[in-house]
Write a sequence for this structure.
């Protein structure tokens, strides 16, 4: 069964105090493998609920995370576990504007059989420096996550490259887990796309922390930038290398996990902010920078043009072996691309895995004018923005994709949002029979309206253990009564017919014991 190991990040979002415009996407990345969110190993994935703007210990925006255990009937909200830096045993301090939980991922960082949780607190004060950023890792156990055994990692941790820097917000731009050296322990990848490199502001970098029998450690950690040996290109201001949607898969089929990261601000063919996606391959010594690969619009035969695209590769790619040839394939977004003469209509590219990495040959280009895709391309919809999730929603052993469309509109109300579902076939990812869900779809709770960004931050897991992956769909910008931007989550169930609107669960903040719905909390937003 494919499990989506959630990777969430935020570069800029209105109202969260971390930026000024939702045009800069958060990113969630899909990954293959048996990682999931089954923190107590009972056979049911657990629901991770982020409340990054929660007040904790009278500190606004300190942030909390809630874990609702899975069960045969789905997540049990009445048994939710609360995680935060005011909880006994959790290292660090709950400060105003920590935004604890705004980025997270799961992995198996130690030798046991339980999934672990890594949570970012981008506003954490480190070595006296505000908003330097830190990660808290919670190990799983028979009874769930164990706060008393949690550990904090930052640039001040022994062995971690670099020094803490005020305002860096290390870890904000994404977390990912993968076993790149195939030693049986996941490594943790920490994106910091705003890092200054070689004198260039916001050039970007990522750090790899090693797993071990006792969990993650700072010793042996590595930092990779565009100055690293073998990496194509060079650091540039606002290049934002290293995050913007990380994903893990085995693209060259050698048995080692590989990593793909974005660099949405890099210059390509003299075009500023054209964007690129990098691939780094695993091996006995972990991720290699030599032999790394870069993919851009018009490289490797990829259809497109840097001039008419821009920020190629932004958001979350999906990963799976759709043609079953032993190499994972990569579905990467080009959401600002022109389709025909439609500016910003958007498209996605399916790139095939091979012994040498990903290739365009044998792949496909998908947009709303392709046969079988619901609707028709329209300007400024940014098809594919901002998440792609690979999962088996119908339990037939073939990988499907839920593709976000947070900026979809009806020509009047912009950024209403929606998402598409494409069915896996025996040889590829199909467009025939694909579906499109919005809040206008019968059975979907809520009301479609402008600037709701419905579907921003989707991820999947099997919460009821029935063998069909379920889909978590945030509507964090949505209204509850008179409470603007109160937000909620919708959980769509998988079935033998795929995702269904029957029995959708709407999870509001007030569903968590002791909490109430509040305006401007953007509840559930984790990317």
């Amino acid at each position: 069964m494919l499990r989506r190991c959630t990777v969430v990040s935020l570069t800029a979002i209105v109202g969260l105090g971390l930026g000024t415009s939702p045009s800069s996407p958060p990113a969630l990345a899909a990954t293959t493998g048996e990682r999931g969110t089954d923190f107590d190993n009972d056979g049911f994935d657990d629901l991770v609920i982020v409340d990054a703007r929660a007040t904790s210990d009278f500190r606004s925006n300190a942030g909390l995370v809630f874990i609702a255990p899975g069960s045969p009937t789905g997540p049990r909200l009445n048994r939710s576990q609360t995680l935060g830096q005011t909880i006994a045993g959790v290292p660090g301090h709950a400060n105003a504007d920590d935004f604890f939980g705004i980025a997270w991922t799961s992995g198996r960082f130690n030798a046991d059989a339980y999934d672990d949780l890594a949570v970012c607190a981008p506003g954490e004060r480190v070595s006296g420096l505000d908003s330097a950023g830190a990660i808290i890792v919670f190990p799983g156990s028979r009874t769930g996550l164990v706060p008393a055994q949690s550990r904090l990692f930052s640039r001040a941790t022994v062995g971690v490259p670099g020094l803490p820097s005020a305002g860096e917000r290390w870890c904000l731009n994404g977390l990912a887990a993968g076993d790149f050296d195939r030693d049986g322990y996941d490594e943790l990848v920490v994106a910091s796309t705003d890092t200054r490199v070689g004198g260039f502001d916001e050039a970007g970098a990522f750090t790899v922390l090693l797993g071990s029998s006792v969990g993650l450690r700072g010793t042996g950690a590595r930092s990779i930038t565009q100055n690293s040996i073998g990496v194509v290109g060079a650091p540039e201001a606002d290049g934002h290398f290293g995050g913007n949607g990380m994903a893990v898969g085995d693209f060259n089929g050698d048995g080692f996990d590989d990593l793909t990261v974005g660099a949405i601000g890099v210059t390509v063919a003299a075009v500023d902010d054209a964007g690129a996606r990098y691939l780094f391959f695993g091996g006995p010594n972990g991720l290699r920078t030599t032999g790394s690969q870069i993919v851009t619009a018009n490289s490797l035969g990829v259809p497109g043009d840097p001039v008419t695209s821009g920020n190629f590769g932004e958001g979350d790619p999906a990963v799976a072996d759709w043609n079953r040839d032993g190499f994972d394939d990569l579905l990467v977004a080009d959401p600002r691309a022109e389709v025909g003469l439609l500016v910003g209509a958007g498209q996605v590219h399916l790139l095939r895995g091979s012994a040498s990495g990903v290739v365009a040959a044998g792949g496909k280009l998908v947009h709303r004018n392709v046969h079988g895709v619901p609707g028709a391309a329209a300007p400024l919809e940014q098809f594919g923005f901002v998440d792609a999730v690979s999962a088996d929603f119908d339990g037939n052993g073939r990988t499907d994709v839920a593709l976000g469309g947070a900026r979809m509109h009806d020509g009047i109300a912009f950024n209403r949002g929606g998402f598409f579902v494409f069915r896996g076939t025996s040889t590829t990812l199909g467009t025939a029979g694909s579906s499109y869900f919005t809040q206008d779809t019968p059975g979907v709770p809520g009301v479609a309206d402008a600037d709701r960004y419905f579907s921003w931050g989707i991820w999947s897991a099997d919460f009821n253990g029935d063998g069909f992956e379920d889909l978590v769909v945030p509507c964090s910008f949505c209204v509850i009564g008179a409470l603007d931007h109160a937000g909620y989550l919708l959980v769509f169930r998988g079935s033998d017919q795929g995702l269904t609107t029957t029995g959708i669960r709407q999870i509001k903040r007030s569903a968590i014991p002791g909490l109430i719905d509040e305006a401007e909390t953007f509840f559930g937003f984790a990317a």
